[in-house]
Amino acid sequence: MQATNNNTTFSDTPACVLNDVYDVPMPGDFVEVIDSFDSQAPAGCFGVILGFKNNSKDEYDICFNPTRAPWGGKFTDAQITAAGGSTYPMVPTELLKATSTVMVKEFLTKTPYIHPVKNVVKVWTINLCDYDRAGIRSSYIQRYAH
């Protein structure tokens, strides 16, 4: 596996990958944009797959450029949530391409007890142009705008 350090020394790196036994995208994994029409989620940015830990689905919501820890502040937190950036709804897993990359991501938790939370995450890639061409976001908006 290729490891990206993200300005972290290995002595303070978590021991294992968040979703280390899965061959499929899972909540908590990160997604790198390889191409995009969206200035809020340009090529090279990262997003996090949202949902419940260890709960595989055929489609996920992905929040790009999250600003706080998507894993919560405790190891027991079961839900992956994120704030900030752009959220793409109902992204089919077939648009997420596997890589051999893992990286250390660190965020601050939300209040009241702000502290850093670090995890080693798998990285998938996505071409958001393919997502936009499929019309998934516009059909989602039409469905839920009423």
Summarize the structure.
It is built from 2 helices and 9 strands; from the N terminus they run βββββββββαα. The chain has 146 residues and is mostly beta strands.
Features:
globular; 9 strands; 146 residues; 2 helices; single chain; mainly beta; 7-stranded mixed β-sheet
Describe the structure.
There is one protein chain. With 146 residues, this protein is mainly β. The chain has one domain. It has two helices and nine strands. It has helices spanning 128-133, 136-144, and strands at residues 2-4, 30-35, 46-49, 51-52, 59-64, 79-80, 86-92, 97-108, 116-127. The strands form two sheets. It has a seven-stranded mixed sheet with strand order 1-8-9-2-3-5-7. Strands 4-6 form a two-stranded antiparallel ribbon. A hairpin with a 7-residue loop joins strand 8 (97-108) and strand 9 (116-127).
